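Technical annex, item 7. During the second reporting period the consortium partners agreed on a shared format for inverse folding records so that results from different sites could be compared directly. Each record opens with the tokenized structure and is followed by the designed sequence. A conforming record, contributed by the partner at site C, is shown below for reference.
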């Protein structure tokens, strides 16, 4: 069905479609609206500049929840979902393991769910996670330092990057700002993406817990392909089409129990 729409109306429709489905395909929109793919690509550039979406090859993805929220605020959102992911995540932790916890609100839940008196050494670049681990009183805590990015809630600059090169965690629990079959694991900040990539490279395995709200979304900076993670943990109610797309992209997807 072709319909004549003003540019502003077309942008509103595309924006609404992004919010409803998480992604749009330029060729499909062009056919539906009776305009050229170049017109749709210009619309997507406009929406990307407004912070509505992240452009990818052939279309665009909805942006994840705002990067402006702090780690503390994010920790208060989707609490039950993050606790379920944390219970699944800690199954990967062996006694005496060295664990890296990236700056992520789900990792705050993992810090609490780690097995007690397991002789674990925990490394983090996030002061809030370090504090939670220290309060447990049953694990050694190593903090990678430098200037703390107030939004990310962690040290992600040159000093932290240098420190990351000198550790060898058994497990890296990686925070994902967005996760998509095509875009991979993404982050809002370029330095955060670089740090995540660096710490994953020196870790024996990388586990990425992802809440459903981040599925089929993309932040501006790529961290890695889904297939580069040892496993991607998702909620029990994650849509089957998203899980199938992740697996087609090479990811080992594990659903957590409700």
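Designed sequence (site C submission):
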């Amino acid at each position: 069905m072709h319909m004549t729409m003003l540019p502003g109306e077309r942008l509103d429709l595309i924006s609404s479609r992004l919010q409803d489905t998480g992604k749009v395909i330029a060729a499909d929109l062009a056919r539906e609206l009776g305009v050229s793919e170049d017109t749709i690509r210009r619309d997507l550039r406009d929406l990307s500049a407004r912070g509505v979406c992240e452009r990818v090859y052939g279309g665009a993805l909805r942006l994840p929840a705002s990067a402006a929220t702090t780690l503390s605020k994010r920790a208060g959102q989707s609490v039950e979902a993050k606790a379920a992911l944390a219970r699944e995540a800690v199954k990967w932790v062996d006694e005496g393991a060295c664990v890296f916890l990236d700056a992520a609100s789900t990792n705050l839940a993992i810090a609490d769910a780690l097995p007690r008196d397991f002789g674990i050494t925990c490394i983090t670049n996030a002061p809030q996670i370090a504090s939670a681990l220290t309060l447990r009183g049953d694990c050694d805590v190593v903090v990678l330092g430098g200037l703390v990015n107030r939004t990310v809630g962690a040290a992600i600059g040159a000093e932290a990057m240098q420190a990351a090169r000198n550790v060898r965690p058994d497990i890296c629990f990686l925070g994902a700002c967005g996760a998509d079959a095509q875009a991979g694991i993404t982050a809002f900040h370029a330095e955060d993406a670089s740090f995540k990539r660096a710490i994953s490279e020196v870790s024996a395995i990388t586990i990425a817990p992802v809440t459903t709200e981040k599925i089929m979304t993309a932040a501006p900076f790529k961290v890695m392909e889904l297939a580069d993670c040892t496993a991607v943990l998702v909620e029990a109610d994650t849509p089957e089409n998203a899980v199938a797309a992740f697996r087609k992209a090479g990811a080992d997807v594990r659903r957590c129990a409700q």
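The CA atoms of residues 176 and 257 lie 20 Å apart. The mean pLDDT is 90. All partners now use this format for quarterly exchanges.
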